[in-house]
Amino acid sequence: MRLSSLFPFATIFAVASANPMGRAMAVHESVAAVPSGFAHAGSVSPDQQITLRIALAQSDIAGLQAKTYAVSNPANALYGQHLTVDEVAKFVRPTSVTISEVSEWLSEHGITAKNVSPAGDLLQITVSVNKANALLGAQFSAFTHSATGKSSIRTLSYSLPASLQSHIRFVHPTVAFVPPLGAPSLNAVEVKRDVVEKRAAPISDAVPASCASVANPACIEAIYGFPADKANNSAQNVLGVAGYIDQFANFADVALFLRNLRPDLVGSNFTVVEIDGGENDQGNAGVEANLDIEMTISLAGGVPVSFISVGDDSQDDVDGFIDIVNSILATPIETRPTVLTTSYGFNEQDLPPSLAIGICDAYTQLAAAGISVLFASGDGGVGGVQPTECTTFVPTAPGGCPFITSVGGSTGVPPQVAASLSGGGFSNVFSIPDYQANDVATYISSIGDQYAGLYNSTGRGIPDVALQALNVEIAWLNSFWLVGGTSCASPIFAAMIALVNDRLIAAGKPVLGFLNPFLYSPAGRAAFTDVTSGNNPGCDTDGFSAGPGWDPVTGLGTPSFSLLLRAAGL
Ligand SMILES: *[C@@H]1O[C@H](CO)[C@@H](O)[C@H](O)[C@H]1NC(C)=O
Ligand SMILES: *[C@@H]1O[C@H](CO)[C@@H](O)[C@H](O)[C@H]1NC(C)=O
Ligand SMILES: *[C@@H]1O[C@H](CO)[C@@H](O)[C@H](O)[C@H]1NC(C)=O
């Protein structure tokens, strides 16, 4: 199912056909056949109402990207001058020509659209299937996702008036056949703890061998040099943890975790923000949600942690991945996160390129506004979010977006080795950003023609960094468990970034914001210990190997808190 390579955005079939309004139509996006994993499930009533989003051309996304790089590159005079949401909106807001052309077209069909993004670049319409077919020269019908039975209404192709092609990025959901987001498999193994365990005293010398088999907060702090001091600057330094698919973080489990493993932080708590009908069901503790909250609260002591519970009523039809961005942009700066960590993701090939780019453009707005956006890199090695059958390597999304920091996995006592599940590889949608161009070129030349044809040698490489991803101890269902996955690594790194931000705020400096140009800068990379051993098997291969320098298994390596502080000029 390689939608991305076979069916690019704005395909070349310029089949002009007249529609009832007399506008010449041209196919905008299409797929040749129903993607594998989905089955056609018959027609739908022409009167059935469907909701579509029209992504308008943004006035200057290239300008936003350039500005985001400028304010995030330590070598640039504008470093740290993060944009306000209004400044971001100026780049993203469609031109008045785009707005009037598109509304004229919609009004010809008697349709009024509603604005659903702060900058007005996303319009939403609710129309009958009949009307949608007429508007878009489409044939909407029912499809079922075979593995889950989840049904959806999609079309294999849609057209736009030729004169509007440049004013509309995409209409969604139309040709996107995206498998429902699955819970990352953390392979939770219960460990017996009959008595309240005293927190292992902070480890000051060598990290004990026991940390290789049970990575509790004391181990993780020792491995990466987390500070003992609690953060003091809670204002404008919220750490956001994204929660999806009815995964709820449990107050009682988190309290149990802290009592046992960070007694000095007992009483620390998290707040819950609910969007898209998200809930806070305390009768339904999610292993992923607990992991993410326990890592952030226990490691970023004193930093306010906000669990953003994204419900099933997503407006974006990508499980809320774009809705959460618009929600954060609409949050007052005092409570807006400065770091956002997400332990869920897609295989890039399951997203039409227009949508992968649309998601990336959304997160770029957060990056521009000074928010560090972290995503777990996936748990299937070179095979994607989870181990899958594959004939070519499967990069993950949205970590392949150049404005996101992709967090891979490592394990063991220092010097750490790669966790074999660590998602890594090269995007088929996003080209190599400048900040890692030399690193990627050096790695690719080091492997010669190994795996030629299985990965895209011009694509953005992931992950950027790696942290603990195996044998991580958590509390869940009133008990203790060991879990594994890059789902552990992303919140751990988020906690570290939040603590650096705390020190920066205390020093009167801007927070780190979009991390990658800083991480790959000479000062930034000096804060990492290169991981040179291990590999990430998948697709019936041994996967890539970690080695000296950046690699698509562990990125730049594992961070040290004190060296990151120094890199940040503290
Ligand atoms: C926070 O304040 C306490 C009390 O003044 C101090 O001991 C601690 O070092 C501070 N933490 C940081 C990170 O500066
Ligand atoms: C955390 O906050 C929730 C919701 O306000 C509350 O029910 C719970 O008791 C709090 N936990 C602690 C340890 O304060
Ligand atoms: C490889 O990646 C580039 C982006 O760097 C993309 O334009 C191209 O289509 C990709 N090739 C394939 C075969 O997917």
List the helices and strands and how they pair.
Layout: H1 3-6, E1 17-18, E2 24-30, E3 38-40, E4 49-56, H2 61-72, H3 85-92, H4 96-108, E5 114-115, E6 122-128, H5 129-136, E7 141-145, E8 151-154, E9 157-161, E10 168-172, E11 189-191, H6 217-224, E12 238-243, H7 251-261, E13 270-275, H8 287-299, E14 305-310, H9 323-329, E15 337-342, E16 346-347, H10 353-368, E17 372-376, E18 396-397, E19 405-411, E20 417-418, E21 425-431, H11 437-447, E22 459-462, E23 465-468, E24 472-476, E25 479-483, H12 486-506, H13 516-519, H14 522-525, E26 528-529, E27 558-559, H15 561-567
Parallel strand pairs: 12-14, 12-15, 13-14, 15-17, 17-19, 19-23
Antiparallel strand pairs: 1-2, 2-9, 3-7, 4-6, 4-10, 5-6, 7-8, 11-25, 16-18, 19-20, 21-22, 24-25, 26-27
Helix pairs in contact: 2-10, 7-8, 8-12, 9-10
One 2-acetamido-2-deoxy-beta-D-glucopyranose binds at residues 229-232, 506.
Characterise this structure.
The structure is a single chain. The protein has 15 helices and 27 strands. The protein is α+β, with helices and mostly antiparallel strands. The strands form eight sheets. Strands 12, 13, 14, 15, 17, 19, 20 and 23 form an eight-stranded mixed sheet that branches. Strands 5-6-4-10 form a four-stranded antiparallel sheet. The radius of gyration is 23 Å and the shape is globular. Residues 1-18 have low confidence and may be disordered. The structure holds 2-acetamido-2-deoxy-beta-D-glucopyranose (3 copies). One 2-acetamido-2-deoxy-beta-D-glucopyranose is lined by residues 251, 255, 267, 269.
